Amino acid sequence: MAAIDIPEVIKFVDATPPFSSLTHAQQKQLLAGVELTYARQGEILNLKNERATLHLIRRGACEIRSSQGALVDKLADGDCFGVASVLEQNPEGLQVVVLEDSLIYRFQKEGFQTLLQESEDFAVFFAHTRSSRLRKLSRAQATDLATPALQLSTPITQIMSQTLITAGVTSTVQAAAKQMTEARVSSIMVIEHNQLVGIVTDRDLRSRVLAVGASPDLPLAEVMTSAPATMDPTGLVMHAQILMSENNIHHLPIVESDLTPVGMVTAADLLRHQELSPLLLINQINRQQDVESLQKVCSQLTTLIVNLILTDMKTTDIGSVIAAITDSLTRRLIELGFERFGRPPFAFSFIVFGSQARKDQSLGSDQDNGMLLSKTPNEQEAAYFASLAQYICEGLDQCGIRRCPGEIMASNPKWRLPEADWQSSFTDWVESSSPSALLNASIFFDIRCVYGDDACVQRVIAGMQSRVMKTSLFLATLTRTATVAKPPLGFFRNFLLESSGEHKHHLDLKHQGLALINDLARIYGLGCRHYKVSTKERLEQAAREKLIGLDVARNLMEAWDELNELRLQAQRKHWQKTGEPSAYLDPSELSSLERKHLKQTFAMIADGQAAALQRFSGGYA
Amino acid sequence: MLVNRMVRAFDTWQARRSEQSRSWQESTYFVLDMETTGLDPKQHQVISLGWVLIERGVIQLDTAQHLLLDSAQIDDSSVGIHMITDTDVLEQGRRHASVLRYLRQIMKDKVLVVHYSPLELGFLKMLWQTQPMPDLAIDWVDTMQIERRRCERAQTVIQEGGYRLGACRDRYGLPDYPSHDALTDALATAELLLAQIAHYSRQEPSLQDLKKLGGGHIRLSSKTIA
């Protein structure tokens, strides 16, 4: 048959990777015999026999699901499927389900197979897609099987709170409310002769007292729910769940057979037990009264992050979760500090730098922070801020956010400054343009306010930016300094040569990869009119302001995602093995394909560095 | 003699009837779009033809063809719309008569699909008048009529211009094709038909169902020339 000659088809294929890397002759070869089909939402696509071939979504959305129905991947315009059915007759029995009505190109199997042999890039792309889907499949299956059954058969005594908040039937409503507030609980057990006779909850106080204008001096007996639903301590989580949902209640007292109370289970406890969720962790952080209990709560942080990595959360989302938790922890410590040292003599902002500011912390990131004071303190005021900062930074350290080895912390008087002094520090850094000064200061250019008035932090940022604009040499020096470190492209050659010998190389994903992209993004970010702090936002903004080519920006963002995912996975594995996170990757654990892909990723960084040198430094390294 | 002819006619009628009640996928569809110098078949001419086939329910992209007709007089306004120039016509234009014979050959035994039949059928009739040719009797389906019926049934209010090809495609979330040559529009019409059929009802429609929604049968003939 004739070669495909429809401009809209050719245009689409030519703009879609990996087809875009093919020559026009190869594209024509692949397009020979291509069919266009329309699939209706909810349809399960047949990938057998002559339909076991490469498919490309022109418009629409599909899902790949395992034979048990677990979600493996989501696909949209420009995504391919059916590769497994061509290469290996789909041994996993993957299914493709149409999510939205879709227009789908169906290629001829023979043409596709020929191209896989002809073009290495093309083959690498599909093999990579295939292996990453297999990885996702194994994770989907693992999480499918593991948890729910185990959790439901946990004894209720393991998750109930054993601190008993009780009051007698003659206590007044007001006294009970005060008791509940102090203990930070939402219910109180009413007892008589050491036996449970009723329960009063937050909601009861609202609906039976406040809403009807009843007196706060009423005895509890008048407003309580008498003979509430209870459970004995031998019960299981599952039983508690059933009881609570049947009775539509959120509080379940646990009592012995003679009605002696032994504990309380709330819906929140059940939820917390079911899933360690970021939101609940933040809630818990906000409820703790001292550093010791905060430390206990934060000990769950690593498990939480490992779970998030396992559930395949996007790396940027994991970064924002960790940032949200660290921010809450910081703010809670500041509040606890006020309770201990009294209110501050005047306003201040607590600012963070580096990875916490960029929201790309991972397991084991350390703290970088400082204080911006609204005035110059006198001796006494300075002493107050010194103790407060000391308390916060030590608290963070105890909760697992380790001290900064370079002492960039609010506890260091050098980084506890009034606004004007921050301004002049930035001026010094920008104007000195000495490479070593810049290298040490670069972390300060990633800055975010987590407590206090953001406006003065924004003023410092604006001042820093206008100084950058005026100092033409600055970005050039920063670029030259930042591009001294190169991505380890040669590493792969060495690795291939020496993998069997005794020199086993390890790759430092953070310093040899991610940090290089962060540095580039910072340079572009500082060149932008609008200040952004996270690496991907900076690259997006730079592309919007046309400082960087869209393709270079996209490649860098993709490389950043890729390396971050690898780093998180490496950290998770290492943590599960040894209890210590590590950003080092043992390349022997990668398949040759993954190595090839990693090499391409590093090549993208090298391209990005070349582009930055061209842009900011006239091409001089 | 007469009986024989009647029997044959009955057989043909019955064969056609049974063919029409089978699933729509069993017929082959010839999806056509024409670029013309204007909107009146009596005054204006066809500049180019674009088509693509639907076989076994899927669009066979490598059946797509785009032909220019050499007899057309091109005025400036249609050049503006379609971006076809005299040079294109010279380079790609085929001899009128052979193009029509080729067209008839391909259309034979297929179901014609167009968007807005009054115009497209009018121009086809006109083409058959320009040249002595054997008759061609053919079933046709109009995606605009199908859309109109569907919207009336669903009691959707459609604004003016809402039945244009692009607007119809929008309602099914089909991609926006910026170019408007005959070939792209033929492909766009074919995709629209597949979308309409996918939304037809729980079961697959037969050809007859499609024709009932918006279609018919037409005989193209050159007889009146003589």
Automatic annotation (TrEMBL), chain A:
It comes from Marinomonas piezotolerans. Residues 160-220, 224-281 form the CBS domain. One of its GO terms (molecular function) is [protein-PII] uridylyltransferase activity. This is Cyclic nucleotide-binding protein. PROSITE patterns: CBS, CNMP_BINDING_3. InterPro entries: CBS_dom, CBS_dom_sf, cNMP-bd_dom, cNMP-bd_dom_sf, Diverse_CBS-Domain, DUF294_put_nucleoTrafse_sb-bd, GlnD_Uridyltrans_N, RmlC-like_jellyroll. PANTHER family: CBS DOMAIN-CONTAINING PROTEIN, CBS DOMAIN-CONTAINING PROTEIN CBSX3, MITOCHONDRIAL. Keywords: CBS domain. Residues 53-121 form the Cyclic nucleotide-binding domain.
